[in-house]
């Protein structure tokens, strides 16, 4: 038998089953509040992340060998102008151009691509040479501010802290001619390696003063390691004789076999330098800078990226010459062209 007070307490206390139901309902309420609050937090922070512009995640080295993400600028804002690698001009900042260090290309069969030589034009055809830069370096184009020649694109010099073409388009006629632009001097070109009766004196041109003031290196022939294409195989240029057969091309660009009518060798000073020319198909040649090409230029004027003899010029570097003579020949053809290390070149002996 219970007292009235005890009966009142028992009525106030819930049964065990009712108590568990209350706990369960409270748990559901707490979890729901947590989910709603978490969703709001995530949504709010995602909107902040989406407002970050021109940022991407790129891996950065970890001292433990793993890779952790770090913030880096967008590729469009990368300044690759100071020696960074490139594979296309678009990867260089304004005023810079991607100079080929390593590359590959497609070479057309001989005589299929149109090449203006000043004497003849090879026939037009569907074949178009291509080139792909595997590794390049952004270099200043003409007019860019520079400190050294190495800052400038191939073929340019750093003249008065500006990347400049060393040869002016303005012509001149003698050393006292003042028609050259400011910073240029009128200098005489190299003549043929062997002077002949009736030869005209070499002409003059405007050259940037830094180069014009240097001693003139006038051997304009082939290096002693050059191989010349003949019907019986390649022959070293030093071993060629008048009357031997060599390959040349006629004015229609057709490959022909003709006799050699002249050969020459010229003493080279110890200071002489030659152009080391490398093409995208692996052909290479060492030749004096003033040696004539098939397109009316000189070897030293050929620039990286240009098309030459059905290929792309990968490099054109001026290096010290290792021998004491340079050599040349003249085939008995309309053009006077010959194949030196399989590269079609002009002759300094052509009248």
State the CATH topology of the domain at 227-345: Endonuclease - Pi-scei, Chain A, domain 1
Overall spatial form: elongated
Biggest sheet: strand arrangement: 15-14-17-16
In whole angstroms, the N-to-C terminal distance is 143 Å
Output the helix-strand order.
HHEEEEEEEEEHEEEEEEEEEEE
CATH class of the domain at 227-345: Mainly Beta
User: Which value, in Å, is the CA radius of gyration?
Assistant: 37 Å
Class based on secondary structure composition and strand pairing: alpha+beta
| SS elements, strand count | 20
Low-confidence stretches: 4-14, 46-83, 110-125
The pLDDT mean sits at 75
Q: Could you tell me the strand content as a percent range?
A: 25-35%
What would you give as the CATH superfamily of the domain at 227-345? Hedgehog/Intein (Hint) domain
The major pleated sheet works out as: 4 strands, antiparallel
Query: Do you know the CATH architecture of the domain at 227-345?
Result: Beta Complex
Helix content: 10-25%
Q: Tell me the number of helical segments per DSSP (H or I, 4 or more residues long).
A: 3
Keywords: Membrane, Transmembrane, Transmembrane helix
Protein name: Hint domain-containing protein
GO biological process, one term: intein-mediated protein splicing
Domain Hint: 219-313
